[in-house]
Amino acid sequence: MNSYLAITPKYLSAHRKNTRLTVISVMIAVALVTTIFSMLDVFWTFEKQQVISDDGNYHITVRNVTEEKAASIASRIDVERAVRYCQLDDAALNGHSAVIATGDSGVTDIFSEGLYNRLSILQGVYPEGKNEIAVEAWAAENYGLKIGDTVAVSLDGVTEQFQITGICANLSSTQAEEVIALLIPLEGERSLKPDLEMQLLIRFKNHVNINKAEQAIMDTLNITNDRIAHNERLLALMGQSMNSTVLGLYATGAVLFLLVLVAGVTMIYNTFNISVMDRIRQFGLLRCIGASKRQIKKLVRHEGRYIVLRAIPLGVLIGILLTFVCSAILKFYNSSFFTGIPLFSVSIAGILAGILVGLLTVTLASLSPAKKASRVSPVNAVSGGGETQVTGKTRKGSLSGRTRVETALGIRNAVSKRKTLVLMSASIAISVILFFGFQVFVSFMYSSMKTVKPYTADVSVLSESGLDYDLYTELSDLDGVKRVYGRMFGYVDATFDASRLTDTYKQTVEDIAINSDGTFIAPEKSWLISYDKSQLKWAKTDLIAGTLSEDNLNENNGVIAVVLTNRNGVSMETASLQLGDKITIQTVSGPKEYAVTAILNKVPFSDSNLNLATFITTEKLYTEITGDSTLDVIDIQLKSENPDQTVFKIKSMAGPTVSFLDSRQKNAATTQAFLTMAVFIYGFVLVIALISILNIINTMQTSVSAKTKYIGMMRAVGMSDRQLHKMIISEAGTYGMTGGIIGVLLGAALQRFLITTLLSGTHMTWTFPTLQVVIIFILILIVILLSVAGPLKKIQSKGISETIGSLQ
User: Fold this and answer.
1) Is residue 378 within 8 Å of residue 387, measured between CB atoms?
2) What's the longest Cα–Cα distance across the chain?
3) SS3 annotation, 653-692
């Protein structure tokens, strides 16, 4: 043999089946890695456009900025655009609640970019004159408004007449609150309120370090930190957010995508290693005909290069095509949400990721097998020393003494090849770990969104004077209504052990008076909410400690403490109350002591007032504390049949004095966003699972084929087909169960670490994922059974003499 290049084509041709399996495995792994990172790149681009559409294309805002400072900031070399903007709540249009948006003419450039035009005019033109205005489409329809009509706009006791020049697109957030969004030019707004406090929206140029630029603006113009706000979602996607929760998400994402790469590397390495190692005898035979150790090494490495040249281009091409298919599915299946996603998008990052993983992995994977293959002696090759032997004494206390022989042999076959066991178990374990890790992102989205939950209302009726239970009963009996539940809200004076107050709250509220008994004089009232049985049941998803039982609360004069309290739009932990703590509440009959019987992470409502703490109790105890038994809000979930007709009936029953909120559009948009993200994230996990499944099937096929002679000998000495099945299934089961157990233990530990450490700011709670564990082991068992079915059937179709004489 003068050159390894001379024998490589003949060698690969002789072992075309094994080589083809390896090429296919590497190709699939490269394709799936390419698809993962390509879709991630596509989705990142789409999500950035979506955030710009939803929140505006700006990075930071400066509140209460003068014209001089605004001009100075706009002239900076690192600023692309800076425009003034103002949003005023508590306005009214013909007596209906409204919110006014106004600003410089360039503000439309900030809010009209992206996939959807937030300020898009559906009919007419954008208002530019002093007394011109645009209103939302839903308000125009509900209140009979059209272009050319004159409307009265009121703000802070001042009323001006405006002419409607345009009908703008609906904002789901304002429609859900039944608050009309109005667009008014800056000159018209100043006629209502001359002393406007404007905020400056700043968009920096590309590749600017926004944190440094922000600090430079603050230092130069003497602007304090409390006047700066951030477009956190956009900054997060740009990798320039310093928010602690976002930083936690960065770290979580880095850990998970590092695991994705490790998974791809491990699985390709395993496939190539087994393909080479299961041909040890053939390498020995090559030694018999004169091949040197150096030539054997070169042969194996050249095989790796051959696989790379065949697998990577095909894998990348398939990955690009899969990206096109995934984009098309998203675009056409949910056209309302993904209308702007590119149909044909080639991701350089995805292609490079696929090439890098395939190239480096196969190169590294060929090193160890090449070294071991070169060490095979001709004597061992001729004698079959590289194969599993039937002979040999079984030590006392081995598996064969406690299990059936065929089961013990299967486990021994798996354990005897330690490297194969480690690689197989590792590839399965990494897939399980990734499943647990990506589940954290889904849980984070689920906990942070107010919809896609059992308690989400389609419509709500509210009244400041209260809603009696007669209306509650009538709505419950109405056809088309699926579920009705109500709440009472109130404010009470509550106090407890002063040591439970957090340092954050103490810094926010100064000069807290401490009593001699360790309690304190509450500087603010606490928010009290009533829950019925259904709402207590739904609240279990946010339960941190204790039990949620209406009977238990009533019997023990109990209240539920809520960890996070909303203050000025920011969730804050004001008190670290524990189970059994005593809360003294000023009731209508005097001060009374209540016990904390449960602790919730948060409630799905917000309050505009500054509250000391938030407590929940039963309707019975709420009435005893406040003396009020009327409901403040009634939430209604609708059936799918004729919802618009049901809504019309509800409005008629509620009457004109009751506020009516329709959240269906907002719920649908948020639910769609959640489901899309969940499908996208689980798509990553599915891709990794596919790699694992293909890896297990390919490995078991190779493993069983390599034992052809061994299996023939077992059949020759009397092993039945049933025993043969059990032996092979035991071997595959050893790989699967070992990987599954390791994956569950490490995956649960990773999940707990991500939630309690990296995402501690989200106050998510971790519980052992029992259901997920059961599903994982069922799937592993199914894959194991599928992986051995084909090879066993093929071997059983051969005669005993044929299998014993096989070189495989």
Assistant:
1) no
2) 104
3) HHCCCCEEEECHHHHHHHHHHHHHHHHHHHHHHHHHHHHH
Q: Among positive and negative, which fits the CA dihedral 611, 613, 619, 625?
A: negative
Measured in whole angstroms, the distance separating CA 163 from the mean position of its chain's CA atoms is 45
Under 8 Å CB-to-CB from 244, ≥6 apart: which residues? Answer: 761
Separation between Cα atoms, residue 73 and residue 299, nearest integer Å: 66
Name which of 218, 248, 244, 243 is nearest 231 in CA terms.
243
Provide the CA 589 distance to its chain's centre, in angstroms. 48
pTM higher than the cut 0.85: no
Residue 601 main-chain phi, psi, to 5 deg = -70, -45
Nearest alpha carbon to residue 290 among 639, 1, 715, 91: 1
- C-alpha 570/C-alpha 248 separation (Å) is 18
Residue 316 · residue 354 · CB < 8 Å: yes
- The predicted model gives 5-19 an average pLDDT of 50
- Flag whether pLDDT at 2 surpasses 50: no
Cβ-contact 699, 424 below 8 angstroms: yes
In a 3-state reduction of DSSP, which class is residue 155?
strand
From 489, 485, 423, select the one nearest 455 (Cα to Cα): 485
> Residue 462 in contact with residue 661, Cβ under 8 Å?
yes
What is the three-state SS of 737-768?
HHHHHHHHHHHHHHHHHHHHHHCHHHCCCCCC
DSSP line for 472-531:
HHHHHTSTTEEEEEEE-EEEE-EE-BGGGB-HHHHHHS--PPBPTTSBB--SS-EEEEEE
Name the residue among 529, 606, 565 with its Cα closest to residue 763.
Answer: 565
In 3D space, the residue among 160, 37, 182 whose CA is nearest the CA of residue 97 turns out to be: 182
Put residue 384 in one of left, alpha, beta given phi > 0 → left and psi -120 to 50 → alpha.
Answer: left
Nearest to 177 by CA among 792, 659, 500: 659
- Contact present, 549 and 610 (Cβ < 8 Å): no
Both tokens assigned to 25: 């495995």
Burial code (b: 16+ CB inside 10 Å, e: under 16) for 455-491 equals: bbbbbbbbbeeebeeebeeebeeeebbeebbbbbbbe
Cβ atoms of 261 and 23 within 8 Å: the answer is no
Is 780 in contact with 737 (CB distance < 8 Å)?
yes
Higher-pLDDT residue of 493 and 251 is 493
Q: To which residue do tokens 């408004």 refer?
A: 145
Using alpha carbons, select from 489, 459, 450 the residue that is nearest to residue 673.
450
CB 561 within 8 A of CB 581: yes
Task: For residue 746, give both structure tokens.
Answer: 């490490």
239 φ, ψ to 5°?
Answer: 75, 25
Give the best-scoring range by mean pLDDT among 568-577, 669-678, 693-702: 568-577
